[in-house]
Amino acid sequence: MEEELKLENQLCFSIYTASRLITRMYGKYLDKLDLTYLQYIVMMVLWENEIISVKTLGEKLYLDSGTLSPLLKKLENKKLISKKRNDNDERIVEVIISEKGKNLKNLAADIPGNLFRDTG
Fold this sequence. Notes:
- By secondary structure, this protein is mainly α.
- The chain has helices at 11-33, 37-48, 54-61, 65-77, 99-108, 111-119; strands at residues 51-53, 81-85, 93-97.
- The relative contact order is 0.14.
């Protein structure tokens, strides 16, 4: 019973540790773009969908509004996105990628290949 409760025997901890290590590996590439990992994954969604509701974005990334709201504010301050209320339903807030945000995609294009190379 005690063996089962040791931290090193927990699958969830192994996955958590691997996730943290990989996220840290992204850092050296994302620093050049002035993005955090969470900002980067938001931008990836926006490179695929130039306009998306905050609710849908949160669902895609498994982020709650308490995490997503300040994240979007920072991206807005960097002029990578803007937010507006939907014309047909003002309860819906939409996130729109800016031209600067679109241009960042070209600078990020090498990141997946670099990470693949770094991890072997």
